[in-house]
Amino acid sequence: MWWRSASFILDRQQEQNAAVPPNPESLLLSSPPPSMADSLQNPKPDISAYYQTRAAHHAVVTSDWLAQAHAAVSIQTDDDDSSVIDGKIAPAAGGRGGDKAFSVIDEFNSWRKQPDLAEAVAAIRALAAVIKASQATTMMELEIELKKASDSLKAWDTTSISLTAGCDLFIRYVTRTSALEYEDFNSARSRLIERAEKFGEISCKARRIIAMLCQDFIFDGCTILVHGFSRVVLEVLRTAAQNKKHFRVFCTEGRPDRTGLRLSNELAKLDVPVKLLIDSAVAYTMDEVDMVLVGADAIVESGGIINMMGTYQIALVSHSMNKPVYVAAESYKFARLYPLDQKDVGPALRTIDFGVPIPSKVEVEKSARDYTPPLYLTLLFTDLGVLTPSVVSDELIQLYL
Amino acid sequence: MDPRRSARTVSDPKVRQVGFFTPAAPPERSCSDPPRQLDPIQSLSPSSAQVNDHSPSVDSVSPVMIPPPPHNNSDTLFRTDLQVTSPKTAFSYSAKTVTLPTENEDVTSSLSPSRKVVTVKSSSSYPCVKASSVPASELTTVSVVNLPPGISEKAGGASVEVLNDRPVSSKSLKEKTSKAERRALQEAQRAAKAAAKAEGTKASSAASKVVTSANTKPSKAAKPSSQKNDGSQVAAFEKKVGDRAPEKDRKKDAPHPRMQYDDTSRVEKAKKRAVVKQTEVRNRVELFRHLPQYEHGTQLPDLETKFFELDPMHPAVYKVGLQYLSGDIWGGNARCIAMFQAFKEAIKDYSTPPEKTLIRDLTARISSYVSFLIECRPLSNSMGNAIKFLKNRIAKLPLVLSESEAKATLMSDVDRFINEKIIIAEKVIVKHAVTKIRDGDVLLTYGASSVVEMILLHAHELGKQFRVVVVDSRPKLEGQLLLRRLVRKGLSCTYTHVNAVSCIMQEVTRVFLGASSVLSNGTVYSRVGTACVAMVAHAFRVPVLVCCEAYKFHERVQLDSICFNELGNPEAISKVHGREDINYLDGFVNQEKLQLLNLVYDATPSDYISMIITDYGMIPPTSVPVIVREYRREHLWS
Predict the structure, then answer these.
(1) Quick one: pLDDT at residue A34?
(2) C-alpha distances in angstroms, B19 versus B46, B190, B192, B281, B433?
(3) How many angstroms separate the CA atoms of A378 and A217, rounded?
(4) Which residue of A has its CA nearest to B624?
(5) Can you list the domains of chain A with their CATH numbers?
(6) When you count CB atoms within 10 A of the terminal residue's CB, does the N or C end of chain A come out lower?
(7) Residue A302 and residue B626: Cβ atoms within 8 Å?
(8) Whether the predicted pLDDT of A40 surpasses 60
(9) Considering just the CA atoms, what is the radius of gyration of chain B in Å?
(10) Given strand B517-519, what is the order of strands in its sheet?
(11) Buried b / exposed e across B185-214, counting CB within 10 Å, b at 16+?
């Protein structure tokens, strides 16, 4: 049998407990004139805001980060722990909600703080807020305004691919939905907002779909190597554990933000046997491994993925040992990018804590992610179905052309 | 749309018969033929498409195929007409469409030989039909009686009949219409035109005219002349066939690139039609015998003398053909643009001959031009696509347009194609490709691709710091031309021959290649040597970027570069220009044991290609079919 959408797998399972992300407290939309605060600069352009937030979400604390957080706390005494972290990244976010002009970036940052919300979804929600705040009276005006907003968002954090992908996707939706042309402006507007709001839901549903699709691939007694902390991967493993599958997981440590620790923590709660490896022990343990399962920051047009640093080498090792490499990622992570090699993607830098002072002469590779070519990937689990890497480009062409 | 189609159908009764004649046709079928001859009337109605649908299925005998008569007035006209002549034929269309009346049985017994020829004529397009299998009916003889003597005489002379059961391969067909055939065509077309002109009043007057002209068809059949299918007729036929299914259309419309040149009988036939007198090279490499290879340099003077004699060929087309032949126009884009410019000229100077329709005649004209160009040099895939586009535009011309309007539309279409699919496409490709050039890169290119040149120059204009390695090969040495232009613009370049590519590849960071065509399995069909460069680059893990406009994408799949390729002048590799001391092969060229192979293209498997840059963006080679699919849609049905 053949289904157009992979979501059948959800329908088949009658468990429709829609785990909608906690809705935001309030949108705080005083709807002032939409002045895109373009002057608002990313305070630390050399450090990827994307990875900062991820670190915050995962509550993994490096000593360097702690020191900065302490400093931030001393400046502004805020109880909310996430905004403490945020205070360090974007002080502008603190002044939000006052008489300050509406800014997409603030909006985006506030959405981003929700740990369950993907970056792309946050971007789309932020753009929806732009629509709400906008005083445009024609579709064209609105489109231009949205374009501006998305450009400023993209410029704010150029390192985040999912932010870019999310913006592109939404703009694409706005410009491409032909139905919008024919209805009157207000209903078109509300349709767009509704669509944006649905996106959060979709992102959660996507994870469920992927988790269900993956179940066929996780067999009893298998050993899964996992790299980094991915919400989708966690969902997959959680579902497998709930389905009473017997498997064990090898977690890499995931230096420097030690995402593997966090994942192993979560898995231990689920009573899944977990073994923690240091990152350099991947090749050593590969012969025990049955499959590699990773998430992705972005799936690019070639069918390769951009993911946390170290994915490439794991893929290389598993390829040479003929182990399958599976990628679990939502379809909104498909990005119109085509890196030819590692350096082709703009580096997303982050601070790395070595524990000991490093002489200033010594250079440190700070990039947070690498690119894994499609050659080394076996299958991609997405909410569109289980895809081979070459299908990604087909999907993208149909989406964007 | 409909009136145009019908007009076309009117003018060629041949096709109309085809569907109903079968080798093993039961007698009652053949006797139901005469009314079908009159189909032109009926074809004024939208059902013509339906008729066309049936025509290919020669063997199917089912009466369901027979289209019902849509026009009552013509029907009655015909009926009365026939009733005058022969009471036997006084059956109605409706009777025929359902199972045939039994009264027809006796008709079959008295079938006269004149019918036979008509059948054969129809079979000319379908080789399997045997003339003898269908008995002729007496009806036709009767109808002759009915005709004015002048017409019947004319028609008799015009019998278009092809006894040689050569299949209608859409190979290049020279435009050598026999007088008789031409007259037959004109006869039919005149009727068609009359019908079309009398738009309002066509119902009665035109219909009757058509009836008569249609009646002439069967009657004229007396004289069996065994001449070849002429180009225009075949083309017209193709057009008609094209109406029914796009696939068929595509197959037929596309100039058939693959005549197997080791099939001697066919080669002989093709030669007879050829304008360009090519002499075959004697010693061809065993594996490549199916490809055409000619002595170079012999035809040019011959053709030049013919310049003023060849009336059917437009001078502009002729010029382009000569340029292809002499190698003055070489690159894929250049050839395509030159061809289209020539066609544009030809369209501009075109005037529909009396008693012909623009759509059909122009298509035939273009086809003859194309076959002439093929004789000069085999078409590239991109040119095939372009020709398909043009023919499609011609076929889709609304009938209401006047001749000048139609010509203007076509000329603007041609311009639009050149502009959108080639020039703007190149710009878009450049825009995409430049993002892949970083400071400090060493870019390698092979041969001389116009797009790659634009990319390099543009990147240089943007102030990117990079070096270029131009790899070249004998015998064309076109890389030198590129090198010259690059150096003049101030790029730092390295020039080397393909022999050294493995040495130079170490320092290269990107390989940019042009392509003649990209096939749907991702294979890149390009200048010979490209595959070698791509493979070396792959071995060194250097990304290979192929820059190719989407109009060059082709739905064909090719696994090697043997079954479809082009052979260049073997002399080019046996001799080195300007080196008199390298004369080892002097006098050996015509030796029986020596076979020289100068291939023009090769196929690079998609494994060695990292990315294809097209006007639709950067795609992996696995996505070519998607582009081909999407592109076709907008290309053919826009």
Answers:
(1) 40
(2) 17, 24, 21, 43, 53
(3) 12
(4) A394
(5) 77-206 (1.20.120.420), 209-400 (3.40.50.10470)
(6) N
(7) no
(8) no
(9) 28
(10) B553-554, B517-519, B524-527, B601-604
(11) bbbbbbbbbbbbeeeeebbeebbbbbbbbb
**Could you report the per-residue pLDDT of B420-466, keeping only the tens digit for each?**
889 999 999 999 999 999 999 999 999 889 999 999 999 999 999 99
The shortest CB-CB distance from B611 to any of A340, A398, A401 is to: A340
Tokens 């010693």 correspond to B283
pLDDT digit string (tens) for A231-242?
899 999 999 999
CB-CB: which of A303, A341, A344 is closest to B620? A303
In this structure, what are the phi and psi dihedrals at residue A215, rounded to the nearest 5 degrees?
-60, -30
Measure the CA angle with vertex B337, ends B335 and B342; round to 5°.
Answer: 95
Buried b (16+ CB within 10 A) or exposed e, B463-476: ebebbbbbbbbeeb
Chain B residues with CB-CB distance to A341 below 8 A: 543
> Mean pLDDT across the stretch A149-154?
84
Q: How far is Cα of residue B170 from the mean position of the Cα atoms in its chain?
A: 7
Token pair 């230096």 is at which residue?
Answer: A255
| Cα A64–Cα A68–Cα A74 angle in degrees, nearest 5 | 150
Mean pLDDT, residues B97-107 taken together: 42
What is the H or E stretch that residue B492 is in? strand B492-497
Q: A342-347 long-range CB contacts below 8 Å, 24 or more apart? A: A342/A312, A342/A370, A342/A371, A343/B438, A344/A371, A344/B436, A345/A161, A345/A306, A345/A369, A345/A371, A346/A158, A346/A159, A347/A159
Q: Inter-chain contact A394–B623, Cβ cutoff 8 Å?
A: yes
For residue A354, what pLDDT is reported?
82
Residue B300: how many CA atoms within 13 Å on its side-chain side?
Answer: 11
Give residue A47's pLDDT: 67
pTM of the model: 0.65
Say yes or no for a CB contact (<8 Å) between A397 and B630.
yes
Q: What is the mean pLDDT of residues A69-87?
A: 43
Q: Which of residues 239-278 of B touch A (CB under 8 A)?
A: none
Is pLDDT of B402 > 50? Answer: yes
